[in-house]
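I hope you will forgive my troubling you with a question about protein structure. I set the record out below, with my sincere thanks for your time.
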Amino acid sequence: MRIYFTFEPRPDLREPLLAEFPQVDFIFESGLTNEELQKADVLVTYGEDLTNENIQQATELKWIFVASAGIEKMPAQAIMERGILVSNVRGIHKTPMAESMLAHILAIKRALPWMYEQQKNSEWSKKGKQTELRDSTALILGPGAIGSEVGRLLQAFGVTTIGCNRSGNEAANMDKMISFAQLKDALPGADIVISVLPKTQETTHLLKKEHFEAMKNSAIFMNFGRGNLVDENVLIQAIEAGEFGYAVLDVFEEEPLASDNPLWTFPNVIVSPHVSSHSSHYVERSLEIFKPSLEKWLKGDMNLENVMELSRGY
């Protein structure tokens, strides 16, 4: 059994892995080479380094473990045609991303961006518009692992949580659930609108002009899922029209965001450069998901955690 990592875990994480699985040949490299890929039975990767050509050359490959939640940059069709199993680290981002979202919400509610500007100008002022988070309503698009975790934290602050997904089926830490079809009707009652939706055909430009028009002009809009959620021109027009109060954007249709993009210039927009999931515990948590799956794999059990349906995009 040959397992090829296209990144190098820290020694304190790598050494226990080697000790727990002495029957496995582990290869650790920074980046992907075809020479090693052709010999690998299992590939551990962040997913952005694979091409159709790689998959054709990886004749021994049977399982790809993706140390990331998103797979939109992977050659899905080629992988499906080869019948290669793919699993990922779904749920790993819930702690850092939920904390990031809560930090932004509290900062806006308690006027911290305004305070920072006052400090830069050495200006003593008590005119900041501070509000409370308590008794707000948050509409969470995509109440999966991440959405449910931010829902749990918001509920602890006395926030009513409404989850929104394709089916409207029940999700953890949501006081109420609605389907995509009911989204427009729910928006006028939301003080905070958070998206953590994955990138699929169904979620592409899900939010349209009429959705922003339906929002409270004081609402906080947050996109922490994928940039395909809304056409950027529609979003910019909504900001210019004052359809909502604040936007916090961690993802964009094209990344990195161009330096001349208007989104940098709006005083009520926070640009987060797709860093909300970053954490010093990332690789450690990835291996905590990988190791139990590897134990199953070595026993011939294909019922691994977080097996993905590539045809659906998640």
In short: Residues 2-92+280-298 form a domain with the Rossmann fold fold (CATH 3.40.50.720).
